[in-house]
Specification:
By secondary structure, the chain is of the alpha+beta class. The chain folds into two domains: 64 residues; 96 residues, Ribosomal protein S6/Translation elongation factor EF1B (Alpha-Beta Plaits, 2-Layer Sandwich). The chain is 56% helix and 26% strand.
Length: 168
């Protein structure tokens, strides 16, 4: 009878408890992975809630840097003034500066300005640094630099087209 009881307990353990324990272990591992994913999702959602407010703040900062004049003519004149002032600070000699036709995109207008001049490479690079830190947003569309005098290769002729973004 003791032998039968021992065999019954061993059989019960081997065929009923052991497979059930493996199923429970697998289910715990699966639920643990799901819990980890949910925790990561919640941590990411806290960042995404903060993201739109940060993006709105960045948009306000960018909108403050748009050319704010009411007409395209005035906005283009402002952009020309900004560009000629930066060229003067960098020590460049401007020969030509003229506005190009504006390109409208919704509530915004892209205002290109073309200019030619001369200077050395250091002055041109200084001018480009001024463009990066300008009060208004200015983008370099085209840039061409040539050596015009082989006797003085440091004197370069440049052609640059920049554009500013305005809300019209």
């Amino acid at each position: 009878m003791a032998l039968a009881l021992a065999l019954t307990v061993l059989g019960f353990e081997r065929y009923f408890i052991q497979p059930r324990a493996e199923d429970v272990r697998d289910e715990i591992a699966k639920n643990s992975r799901a819990l980890e994913r949910d925790e990561q999702l919640l941590a990411g959602s806290a960042l995404s809630e903060k993201g739109p407010s940060d993006a709105a703040g960045e948009m306000k900062k960018l909108e403050e840097r748009l050319v704010s004049e009411k007409t395209e003519f005035l906005a283009s004149a402002r952009l020309q003034d900004e560009v000629s002032g930066m060229a003067e600070k960098a020590g460049l000699k401007l020969l030509t500066i003229r506005p190009m036709p504006a390109v409208k995109a919704g509530h915004f207008s892209n205002l290109p300005v073309y200019f030619e001049g001369s200077g050395n490479i250091r002055q041109i690079s200084q001018f480009l640094r001024h463009i990066e830190s300008a009060v208004v947003i200015i983008k370099v569309d085209k840039l061409g630099v040539n050596v015009t005098n082989m006797q003085n290769p440091r004197e370069l002729k440049f052609k640059i087209q920049v554009s500013g973004l305005a809300r019209i």
